[in-house]
Amino acid sequence: MRKSLIPLLIAVLVVFSAQQLLTPVLAPLSRELTLTETQLGLVITVAATALTIASPLWGHALHKIGLRLVLLSGLGLTTVGLTGFAAVAALGLDDTMPPPLVFALMLITRSILFGAGVAALPVAALAVAGTATTTEAERTRATGLVGAAQAASMVLGPAGGGALAAVSLMLPLYLAPVLCLLLSLWVLAAVRPPAASAPATHNGPGLRPWDARLWPLLVIGFFLYLSLGLVQVIIGFLVADRLHLGPQQTAGAVGIVLFAAGVVLVAVQGAAVPALGWPVLRLLRVGTPIAIAAFALLSLSQSLWLIATAFALLALGLGLAIPGFTAAATMVAEPSRQGSISGLVNATLGATFIVGPLLGTALYEIGPAIPILTALGAVTTALVLAWMSPAARRAQAATVAVPPGTPAEP
């Protein structure tokens, strides 16, 4: 399992680190470009829409064109998108381009091109994790490692972005596409079948999201991710307004908050979840109450260390709950359909970021505490479903649907 996942984990880590480089600078950059909070929310929401639409398509493409071509195609789109985003931002800061045109081109580059491209990475990683495992414990461990790679990007990306932003807000924007280009060259040279082959082809009808075994789990995942999406996009505004900081100070403070959350996520998903070996339902039922406590603390936090503590606590809660959701969902499908199920799982994440950032920024303009309280309600709903849903209870006793003799490696 580890051998087949390593190239995918590296790819996920690098491309999401490139994305997270931009996180500390998005809020201050948007204000320098005279964009509103709602416009920034739209940039992220349109990116999530592109990711949601593209994810099932990438899952289908895995069975048709193979893992290597999916990775290269996705990375090509991310590189072009981030390069265009950096160019548009530079022209906007120089007053060469008017704000309405800056906003429109950001939607094309940072949202559509990058959003569609970045979807390929987690879909491919989850599909390989699904075909490389046969038991609930193995599946939870594998999906936890994919989550840990994304969490590690939250450590490396915001820390690097915050440090670079102390010199110039544009430096993270210049570095991000370079990282994606270098990763593309590495994939071209190093990732070849059969070292990391695509999941087996299945000629029957694909798994549908409204399948009774699957949709309640997707709803739980939707609310978990929605709670994060509601607060992640407003963190820059929250830090700036509660602590009364300038643009570069805000970027540095956001980097500290996300660094703390990322460290906890890496520890939980990369070490704690595999070591605990808990069933998927226990992960959900223990993680969601911790996330509820985190949102309650965040709603009251008025200092940087309390905000950082709240996000670290949130990382602990979601770091337990999300691998439980992901493993439970992938166990619904046999290995030949892991591409399809991975596309649906990643589309669920994308769907929450269609709603979350736009809703979060709009609610923030009404009242700074409202998006946090809405996130608390979302994760509480996930907890209720984890206790009450028959599909969640069936996941407790589920076994991976693989034919006898199916090998552990794809």
TrEMBL record:
Residues 4-393 form the Major facilitator superfamily (MFS) profile domain. Signal peptide: none annotated. It is a multi-pass membrane protein. This is MFS family permease. It comes from Nonomuraea rubra. It is found in: Cell membrane. One of its GO terms (cellular component) is plasma membrane. The keyword Lyase does not apply. It comes from the Bacteria. The chain crosses the membrane at residues 40-58, 70-92, 112-132, 144-167, 173-193, 214-239, 251-268, 280-298, 304-332, 344-364, 370-388. Keywords: Membrane, Transmembrane, Transmembrane helix. One of its GO terms (molecular function) is transmembrane transporter activity. Its main location: membrane.
